[in-house]
Amino acid sequence: MSGGAAAEARSEGSPLRVEIGRGIATLTLDRPSALNALDERLRRELVAAIGRLERDRSVRVVVLTGAGRAFCAGQDLREVAPGEEGGPSFTQVLRETYHPIVLGLRRLDRPVIAAVNGVAAGAGASIAFACDLRIAADSASFVLAFGRVGLVPDSGATWFLPRLVGRARAAELALLGDPVTARDAERIGLVNRVVPDDRLATETRALAERLASAAPIAVAFTKRALDRSAETDLAEALDYEAALQGLAGRTADHAEGVRAFVEKRQPRFRGE
Hints:
This protein has 272 residues and is α/β, with parallel strands linked by helices. It has two domains: 7-212, 2-enoyl-CoA Hydratase, Chain A, domain 1 (Alpha-Beta Complex); 216-263, Lyase 2-enoyl-coa Hydratase, Chain  A, domain 2. The chain has helices spanning 40-55, 90-107, 123-130, 157-165, 167-176, 182-187, 200-212, 216-229, 234-248, 252-263, and strands spanning 7-9, 16-21, 24-29, 61-66, 70-72, 112-116, 119-121, 133-137, 141-143, 180-181, 193-195. A seven-stranded mixed beta sheet has the order 1-2-3-4-6-8-11, sandwiched between helices. Strand 2 and strand 3 form a beta hairpin. The protein is globular.
């Protein structure tokens, strides 16, 4: 995969579009007639695509979005449902396909933006929560409707929600399962910004280009430090920041950033 001119990788009939250009990879869930519900093929292709992007150093930013009027409706209920006779258990399906998606997004050392173009429900909402930034269209909404079918929020929802919106608000969203509009999601800190529907692609691209122009090593270290901070105390966080800063301070990107500041020009970071 190249980071130059836009390129698209897609197998025949694939439910996932992968487009790469100018350092930005866009993953589009492409089952619009099913509201981009996650069947087994889409889940496995998403896992594989994330793995390829992890190895592709030309990619500096990843955008995840949906085709049509939904971001992702969660598990495709038209499949043999987990737990049904002859089907795999819920535990097996989650561990084999959903967990690798969520962990893959978190382990990417590049920022991941969820461009939420419509409803994000169930595991679809959880996957949006796993991204570093969320930009939502006015028509977008989030719903954790697991309880309506006697299930528990999964795919990381119970881990991400308290960290995004606090314990009390997380309990409200998870226990009641009421839909959250894009504007309410922005108000409670669940999304970073809300834009008109017809501006979502443009605004997401502008945000991705801004991140793609940043120093890749510093971005990776920042993402790592933010993730680690959720599990450490202040003293440990300070020590970890100092260690990362020592590494960042020896990079060519740091030297370039200082030169650009002195010369009053935009830096040209190479990830070195």
